[in-house]
């Protein structure tokens, strides 16, 4: 089992490995950030136990493939205006919880991220202000939950075209144990 540990990487950014989830921490007072992420993880697991019929569930980090992306990488080609970057249907044993957004693009074009389903908008997040800081990431006020069998739809509004927009999502996947190699709880 993975233990909690701290990593120091380039540019003095600190990353904390908490129960198998690597979380970026940039200042000493970001302990609250870690506490919030752990609370979200706990709530996600509780919800998963209510919604997914399985003997044992695992919680693991969200990956691009979980949203049906052919290349397991958070990189998109976008044009100025509205762009659909995720449109998929989750199976009936998968719960996805998104709690944050980050952008690793050299020249970010994304100004807004819209989370929803084919039926309705769930959350609309203006992100351009996160580019004012060294860390191009933000936590959502409330996590976005995509329930088993739902059809996640994520759109971004871009101010310019970019063939390598690296908008990514911080989140968890809750699913039955043993479904994927590398699943960790």
Instruction: Give the fraction of residues assigned to helices.
Output: 10-25%
| Strand order across the largest sheet | 4-13-7-10
What is the succession of H and E elements? Answer: EEEHEEEEEEEEEE
What share of residues are in beta strands?
35-45%
Report the uncertain regions.
Answer: 1-19
- The CATH class is identified as Mainly Beta
CATH architecture: Sandwich
**Quick one: overall form?**
globular
Task: Please identify the structural class as seen in this structure.
Answer: mainly beta
Number of helices: 1
Task: Give Rg in angstroms.
Answer: 16 Å
The total strand number stands at: 13
Give the N-to-C terminal Cα separation.
9 Å
Mean residue pLDDT = 80
Report on this structure:
This protein is mainly β. It has a single domain (5-176), classed as Jelly Rolls. 11% of the residues lie in helices and 45% in strands. The chain has one helix at residues 31-51; strands spanning 5-8, 14-18, 21-25, 57-61, 76-78, 81-87, 95-103, 110-117, 121-126, 137-146, 152-158, 162-165, 167-176. It has a 4-stranded antiparallel beta sheet, covered by helices on one side. Strands 6-11-8-9 form a 4-stranded antiparallel beta sheet, with no helix packed on it. Strand 2 and strand 3 (21-25) form a beta hairpin. 26% of the residues are buried. Residues 1-19 have low confidence and may be disordered.
């Amino acid at each position: 089992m993975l233990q909690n540990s701290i990593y120091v990487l380039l540019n003095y950014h600190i990353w904390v490995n908490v129960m198998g989830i690597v979380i970026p921490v940039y200042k000493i007072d970001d302990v609250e950030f870690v506490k919030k992420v752990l609370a979200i993880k706990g709530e996600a697991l509780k919800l998963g136990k209510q919604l997914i019929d399985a003997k044992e569930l695992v919680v693991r980090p969200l990956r691009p493939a979980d949203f049906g992306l052919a290349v397991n990488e958070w990189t998109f080609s976008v044009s100025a205006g509205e762009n659909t970057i995720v449109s998929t249907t989750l199976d009936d044993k998968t719960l996805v919880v998104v709690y944050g957004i980050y952008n690793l693009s050299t020249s970010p074009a994304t100004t807004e991220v819209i989370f929803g389903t084919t039926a309705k908008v769930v959350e609309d997040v203006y992100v351009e202000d996160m580019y004012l800081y060294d860390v191009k990431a933000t936590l959502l006020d409330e996590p976005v939950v995509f329930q088993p069998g739902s059809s996640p739809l994520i759109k971004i509004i871009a101010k310019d075209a970019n063939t390598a927009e690296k908008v990514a999502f911080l989140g968890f996947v809750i699913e039955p144990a043993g479904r994927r190699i590398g699943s960790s709880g």
